Amino acid sequence: MKFLDLAKVQLRSGAGGNGCVSFRREAHVEYGGPDGGSGGKGGDVWAEAVEGLNTLIDFRYQQHFFAKNGRPGMGKARSGIGGDDIVLKVPVGTEILEEDEETVIADLTEVGQRVLLAAGGNGGFGNLHFKSSTNQAPRRANSGQPEVERTVWLRLKLIADAGLLGLPNAGKSTFLAATSNARPKIADYPFTTLHPNLGVVGVDGAEFVMADIPGLIAGAHEGIGLGDRFLGHVERCAVLLHLVDGTSEDVVADYHTIITELEKYGGDLAQRPRITAINKIDALDEIELAQKHNELVEVSGGEVLRLSGVSRSGITGVLRAVRAEIQRRDGAVEKAAKAEEEGAWQP
Questions:
Q1: What is the pLDDT of residue 339?
Q2: On the CB side of 49, how many CA atoms lie within 13 Å of its CA?
Q3: Is residue 50 within 8 Å of 113, Cβ to Cβ?
Q4: What pLDDT, in 10s, does the model give residues 309-320?
Q5: DSSP 71-135
C-alpha cells in the first residue's frame, strides 16, 4: 500500500428539503385544513478515526464527498426523508485543516473520535406548521436551508512513542530493521527512505512504537526535501533518537544540521527529550571512534551512546534508554490525570 500523508478534499453537505403547501381535499370534509409536511434534513459530512489505516492514499482517488439532500415534504402531513450522511474514514493521527493549510479544525488522535465537517441544512416547514387559531388556512411554507461547501486538507501525523532522526544515510532504516519486524528499504545511498515507516520495538519484555522518517537536510523546516512534512510525523513522539553517522567526515556539523532544523521547525520539538547516538561504530577503529565520540559529547553537552545497526552492537543499551524516556512520559501523564481526578469537584 502506498503511503500518503497529505490530501485535499472537497465536501458538501445536503440541502434541506422544501416544505409543502397542501390542503386536505376529501369528500364530505368541507374544511380539511392544511396538511403540507415539512422537508427532510440534509445529510451531514463527518470525519472519523478508524483502526487499520496508516495512509491517506484512498483520498488520492476520491476527492469529492457530497452528502444527500433532504426530500421535500408532501401532502397528507408527510414529512420528507432526511438525506444520508457521509463519513470520511481516516487513520488515527489525522489533522483536519482549513483550506489555508494552517488553521486546525480537528486532531483525531483516538479510535472512534468523530468531528462534524459540514452540517446538512434543516428542512423547511410545511404549511401545516403555520396553522393557528387566527390563521386556519396558511398558504406559505419554508424552503429548506442550503448546503454547506468547503475544502479541507487532511494531514496524517504518525502516532509513535519514539522517532528516529538523522541525515540521509545515517543508518536509521537499518536500525529499525534490526530492532523490529519492520522491513524498510535499505541501500548504501542517501534518500533510500522516501516515506515514514513504523516498527514495534521490544526490549526487556516491553514494547513501544518507533517511527523512522526520511533523512533531513538543511532547510528541511522550510519544506526542502519535504522535511517539514517529515518532521510532523515525530511531533507526537515522547522521545527522539538522533543517529549520527560515525563514518561522516564532520560529525559535529551533521549534529548541528539536525538540531538547527528542529529549532527552526517550531513548537517544542527542539525541547523534546532526545537521545544522541553515534552509529556505524563497526566501521571505525578505536582511535577514530573515541575522537568522534568525544566531539559529539562536547557539542551535545550530554551522554552519547554507541551502536551499530549492522552488527547490532550497543542496540540493547540504546533501546533501554529510549524506553526509560517513554516510561517517564507515561508516568507524568498518569500523575497529571490522577491529580486532575482528585481535584475534581464533588457534591
A1: 65
A2: 23
A3: no
A4: 888 888 899 899
A5: PPPBTTTBPPPPPPPEEEEEETTEEEE-TTS-SEEEEE-STT-EEEEEPPPPPPPPGGGG--SS-
Taking residue 311's Cβ as centre, other Cβ atoms within 10 Å add up to 13
Which residue in this structure is represented by grid cell 515514514?
Answer: 196
Query: Which residues of the chain fall below pLDDT 50?
Result: 1, 185-193, 220-221, 223-227
Q: Which domain holds residue 6?
A: 1-156
Domain boundary among 132, 156, 180: 156
130 and 170 belong to one structural domain: no
How confident is the model at residue 215, as a pLDDT?
A: 61
Nearest CA to 50 among 90, 85, 2? Answer: 90
Task: Verify that 132 and 197 share a domain, yes or no.
Answer: no
Q: Are residues 107 and 201 in the same domain?
A: no
- Torsion (CA) 161, 166, 169, 171 in degrees, nearest 10: -40
Task: Output the pTM of the full model.
Answer: 0.74
Q: What is the predicted pLDDT for the residue at 186?
A: 45
Task: Kindly list the distances between the CA atom of residue 284 and the CA atoms of 47, 107, 265, 310, 312, in Å, as whole numbers in the listed order.
Answer: 51, 45, 33, 13, 15
Round the CA-based radius of gyration of the chain to a whole number and report it. 29
CATH classification of the domain holding 258: 3.40.50.300
In a domain, 347, yes or no: no
* 222 in the same domain as 133: no
**SS3 label, residue 58:** helix
Last residue of a domain, one of 156, 184, 215: 156
Cα separation, 71 vs 81, whole angstroms? 5
User: Is residue 343 a part of any domain in this protein?
Assistant: no
Single-letter amino acid code for the residue at 249: E
Same domain for 253 and 105, yes or no, is no
Q: With respect to residue 346, please indicate whether it lies within any of the assigned structural domains.
A: no
Amino acid at 245: D
